[in-house]
Design brief:
With about 60 residues, this protein is α+β, with helices and mostly antiparallel strands. The chain is built from one helix and six strands; from the N terminus they run E-E-E-E-H-E-E. Strands 1, 4, 5 and 6 form a four-stranded antiparallel beta sheet that branches. A two-stranded antiparallel sheet has the order 2-3. The radius of gyration is 11 Å and the shape is globular. The termini are close together.
């Protein structure tokens, strides 16, 4: 399971050690692991993406 976050800072990121890093720009949506989403949110680099009903968006 992954959650969708919206990046609020442009940069290069890496979710898991065995996955390649990725570059993203401010405003992009991307699915990441829940633990990485928490790290990004705590570092003010991303916000949790919610749909129009205010529900968190998950991706399998």
């Amino acid at each position: 399971m992954k959650v969708v976050v919206e990046f609020i800072e442009t940069g290069r990121y890496k979710d898991r050690a065995w996955e390649p890093s990725f570059y993203t720009v401010k405003g992009n949506l991307r699915s990441v692991s829940p633990s990485y989403a928490v790290q990004l949110i705590n570092q003010f680099k991303a916000i949790l993406y919610t749909n129009e009903n205010g529900s968190v968006v998950f991706k399998n």
